[in-house]
Design the sequence.
């Protein structure tokens, strides 16, 4: 257990926080890398997801494809791109964006799909255009699930940038890969604690965002909070088993 | 109901199969001897570990092949990591034998030592090796860390030795493995022996092609490339001389758990070591880096060619 | 291609090791999630505690967990168990939520009916709730399987070798083919596992065959719920 005391000693030592290789700088780098990755992934995946959810087109291709993307081993992809494009931020950034797309995309299309067809039909019948219905009815109702997709991606991106530090990069992964060859448990464990804390803090923040964007009286965002018994089995059955019906 | 019962039976079967598979997993083909479940490797068999770079892996396979030919059962666990990790693996019994380099190993055991010359290093290493472990005969071949610059950098700045670096005005970045940041021959040694401040760019390929590329494109000014790497000659790098002998002699030497060092094992490995010359190391590295042959293929060809 | 031909035995060795490292975490993680998933639906407090715990476990990066396990469970540092236990923790953390949701999706009326015809709590769980939650569980286990197969490769960084060995070796020699082979092999294993799980699901849940797209829909749903790779 003394490695844990050592890790906290490492963590609370001022000199480990200062300077260009200190925890502070690494934390800033890590946040920067992660934010950039998420931003790009959102710009690509959200419109695509809205399109798929709204039109129902391409779903048969995208679901298995995103599944296959998930199977892509991060380390392999990062190394492959680095060998191909050289060092710098771009190769791992591309890899991380590729890996962040599936959850964001899935959140977006399933969010739109979760909107009751009757609600959309009602909107159309009172004069909304297809575009108007999408932006003013479907997207607001789907927002909790869309944010949920981004939230999943956040956890993943923050964790995966540590793996990418196998390459000469900054970020919190530096502490893991620099501690590993010399078995510096204090550094590795201390670095991990910072990563975990960062991941949990961001996850919590996104949980709040998710709650804030949930329209009152809408269940779409609370699917994850379903509890047993009292509810009608009919609705649930439909949600889980045959949403395309 | 019948269907439900069938379901339960099927689920039960699946669960049993699952448990069986879980149990099987301790029979991992690449994990012999490392298990905690009392499935100890049979007495006399040797697990050869290696560091995570090609030359070390090839040497591990060479040891294993030669031992196997001599009738000693040997398996290889390649790609363990760097020195601190595989020495820990040696100490906890995960591996029994590992190819090593005299100077760096000596400084790992005792950082204060600074003997000059291969024999003095070897003698000091024999003394410094902890009880329960021993080094066998050292090979004539050596492969040392070396600081390299591009020809252009050397000519432009008149730098041919590590002591010349002190006069360099720009910032210095060194491409090397991350442990270079703490080693006595790395960043700290550069500071204490030569008064040179340099920052590390951690390129985890043990001075391989990525480090070389970084040196050529100016990402780093200095690169730690192992002296037997064919690229030094091929790419025309200038290896900086080390007038203060910061980097010790680095002859290849087997480090072994004494309980596994039977007369036969010692005899076999000592014979192998006599054949491991610097040229032989350059040759196997060329096969790996240039011809992309796998470590075990290079090793078995070498063992055959050298008549074991 | 010639490299592939010349290095076939090595490829098979590492591929096999990869498969053997992947299977136990998937299965153990799934089995562990069943009682805890049930518990998560049983009480409000246990739900909060368990799902939060799952979230925290899931936030731990893989590399430090691999490195720390020997000190936590007393294994040797090269023991494949270190990787297997770590991946089991992730599989469990991922599966817990899916299992809880799957079991919760079984309608209250159905459960009451089962009780009414004389099922005890355990028999009702195994005979009614589990099969009805089947499509959701299968979807969850497919996601877990894919992510586990992919995560196994990171074990190579700490010397527990799998197809991930080819990533590191390929990097050190700047050799594309080797990295490609590692990635291709990993994808292949993931696909085969996935196909086997779908087949097993069809065999175990014959009723889903008649409802077109039921399994796919549940899978798409699970995909949308979980980010898996790290």
Sequence:
């Amino acid at each position: 257990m003394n490695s844990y005391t050592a890790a906290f000693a490492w963590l609370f030592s001022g000199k480990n926080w200062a300077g260009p290789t200190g925890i502070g700088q690494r934390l800033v780098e890590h946040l920067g890398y992660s934010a950039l990755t998420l931003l790009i992934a959102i710009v690509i995946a959200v419109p695509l997801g809205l399109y798929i959810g709204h039109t129902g087109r391409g779903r048969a291709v995208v679901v298995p494809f995103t599944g296959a993307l998930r199977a892509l081993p991060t380390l392999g992809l990062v190394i492959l791109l680095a060998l191909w494009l050289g060092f710098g931020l771009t190769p791992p950034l591309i890899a991380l964006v590729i890996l962040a797309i599936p959850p964001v995309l899935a959140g977006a299309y399933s969010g739109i799909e979760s909107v009751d067809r009757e609600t959309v039909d009602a909107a159309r019948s009172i004069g909304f255009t297809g575009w108007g219905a999408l932006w003013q009815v479907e997207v607001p109702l789907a927002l909790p699930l869309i944010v949920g997709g981004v939230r999943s991606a956040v956890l993943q991106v923050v964790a995966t940038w540590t793996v990418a530090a196998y390459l000469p990069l900054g970020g919190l992964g530096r502490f893991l890969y620099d501690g590993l060859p010399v078995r510096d448990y204090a550094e590795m464990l201390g670095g991990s604690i910072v990563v975990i804390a960062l991941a949990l803090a961001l996850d919590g923040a996104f949980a709040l965002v998710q709650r804030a964007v949930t329209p009152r009286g809408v269940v779409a965002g609370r699917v994850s909070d379903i509890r047993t018994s009292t509810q009608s089995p009919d609705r649930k059955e439909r949600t889980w088993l045959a949403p395309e019906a | 109901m019948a269907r439900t019962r069938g379901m339960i039976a099927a689920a039960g079967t699946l669960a049993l199969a699952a448990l069986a598979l879980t149990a099987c997993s301790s029979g991992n083909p690449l994990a012999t001897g490392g298990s905690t479940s009392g499935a100890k490797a049979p007495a006399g068999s040797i697990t050869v570990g290696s560091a995570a770079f090609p030359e070390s892996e090839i040497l591990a396979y060479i040891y294993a092949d030669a031992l196997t030919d001599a009738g000693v059962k040997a398996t290889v666990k390649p790609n363990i990591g760097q020195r601190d990790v595989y020495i820990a693996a040696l100490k906890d019994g995960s591996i029994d034998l590992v190819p090593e380099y005299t100077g760096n190993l000596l400084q790992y055991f005792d950082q204060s030592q600074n003997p000059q010359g291969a024999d003095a290093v070897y003698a000091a290493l024999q003394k410094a090796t902890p009880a329960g472990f021993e080094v066998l005969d050292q090979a004539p071949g050596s492969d040392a860390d070396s600081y390299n610059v591009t020809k252009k950098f050397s000519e432009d700045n008149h730098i041919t030795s590590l002591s010349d670096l002190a006069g360099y005005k720009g910032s210095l970045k060194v491409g090397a493995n991350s442990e270079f940041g703490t080693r006595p021959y790395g960043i700290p040694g550069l500071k204490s022996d030569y008064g040179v401040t340099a920052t590390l760019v951690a390129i985890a390929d043990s001075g391989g092609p990525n480090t070389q590329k970084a040196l050529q494109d100016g990402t780093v000014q200095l690169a730690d490339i192992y002296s037997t790497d064919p690229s030094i000659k091929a790419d025309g790098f200038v290896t900086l001389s080390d007038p203060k002998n910061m980097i010790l002699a680095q002859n290849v030497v087997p480090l072994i758990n004494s309980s596994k060092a039977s007369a036969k094992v010692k005899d076999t490995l000592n014979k192998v070591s006599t054949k491991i010359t610097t040229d032989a190391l350059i040759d196997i590295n060329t096969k790996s880096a240039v011809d992309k042959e796998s470590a075990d293929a290079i090793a078995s060809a070498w063992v055959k060619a050298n008549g074991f | 291609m010639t490299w592939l031909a010349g290095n076939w035995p090595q490829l098979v060795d590492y591929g096999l090791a990869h498969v053997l490292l992947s299977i136990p975490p998937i299965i153990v993680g799934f089995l562990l999630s069943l009682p805890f998933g049930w518990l998560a639906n049983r009480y409000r407090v246990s739900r909060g505690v368990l799902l939060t715990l799952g979230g925290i476990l899931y936030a731990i990066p893989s590399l430090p967990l691999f490195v720390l396990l020997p000190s936590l469970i007393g294994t040797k540092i090269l023991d494949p168990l270190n990787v297997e236990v770590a991946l089991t923790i992730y599989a469990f953390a991922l599966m817990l939520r899916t299992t809880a949701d799957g079991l919760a999706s079984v309608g209250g009326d159905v459960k009451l009916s089962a009780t009414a015809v004389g099922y005890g709590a355990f028999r009702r769980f195994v005979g009614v709730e589990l099969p009805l939650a089947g499509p959701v569980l299968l979807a969850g286990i497919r996601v877990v399987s894919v992510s586990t197969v992919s995560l196994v490769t990171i074990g190579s960084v700490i010397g527990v070798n799998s197809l991930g060995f080819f990533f590191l070796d390929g990097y050190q020699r700047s050799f594309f083919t080797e990295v490609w082979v590692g990635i291709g092999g990993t994808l292949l294993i993931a696909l085969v596992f996935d196909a086997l799980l779908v087949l097993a699901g069809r065999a175990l849940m014959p009723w889903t065959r008649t409802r077109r797209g039921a399994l796919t829909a549940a899978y798409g749903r699970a995909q949308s719920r979980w980010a898996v790779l790290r």
Q: What stands out?
A: The CA atoms of residues 90 and 194 of chain A lie 24 Å apart. The radius of gyration of chain A is 21 Å. The longest helix of chain A spans residues 130-164.
